[in-house]
Amino acid sequence: MADVATIDFHVTSACSQACSYCWGPRDVAEVDTDTACAIIAKIASDGARRIVFTGGDPLQRADTGLLIRCAKEAGLEVALSTTGDELTESFLDAYAADLDLVSLPLDGASEEVSSRTKEPGHFTAVMRALRALAAHPRVDVKVATPVTRSNIDDVPSIVALLDDHASRLPNRLFYNVFHAFPRSMSTEVDWEGIVVSDEEFARLRSVIGAAPHAFTVNWLGHETLDRLYVMVFPDGTLTVPSGSEYRNYGSYLDIDDLDEVLRRSEFDAPKHLRHAAGWRRGTA
Hints:
CATH topology: TIM Barrel
Largest sheet: 10 strands, mixed
CATH class: Alpha Beta
Number of domains: 1
Radius of gyration: 18 Å
Structural class: alpha/beta
CATH architecture: Alpha-Beta Barrel
Order of helices and strands: EHEHEHEHHEHEHEHEEEHH
Number of helices: 10
Strand content: 15-25%
Number of strands: 10
CATH superfamily: Aldolase class I
Shape: globular
């Protein structure tokens, strides 16, 4: 069994957003439904306990609901990481029973700040998604903020907004604060205009940590984020990022020994397992 708890399946590179700091694949062809289900079955047989459907935005792919059911039938914990733009009440009514967690990005506490890095209307879409998720309290909710020069001063306002939502949201809520990391498949990113310093990120953590909150706040700095992820890209290839590099190991379905591949990569299994322990279905 592979020494990995979570595998991220980037089922599409299509997205309604174009975030310059995004780690997701760009312009990558997608495997068909049968191949995607075979990948999901292999993720389960390789010993992972959780799959994250991500992208791009997985809800840009028409068969994602079917893939979610496929993963649940394989015995996996199922997370959906989506922009929220396409997360509808009807989708949740159909598939929430097979979802353990939904992750939503929030770049600002208002449309004005959010629109510095997201398309106009994204803040409103996330607020709508949170209201829709309240009808499915069994589904855990994770809100994630990538901290950049565009929003670092607004993060305390995001936390205040989530404090207010937590008082009304029956779901278990987590908040992940990411230190925007200089890794992207785009080669034309002005990282100096995006990335805040380690000292700025540490000061922000101190400010937020000075008050109690009704939800868990997870701080993900550069060191934590590096060599943390195992990804299957939309074309079915295995990718293990390290630093700014995306290291590709060919077709995931053709890999007989995932442990051996991960040993050859720079994947940090102990750190990955510690991080994965921060969220488990059914734990307080």
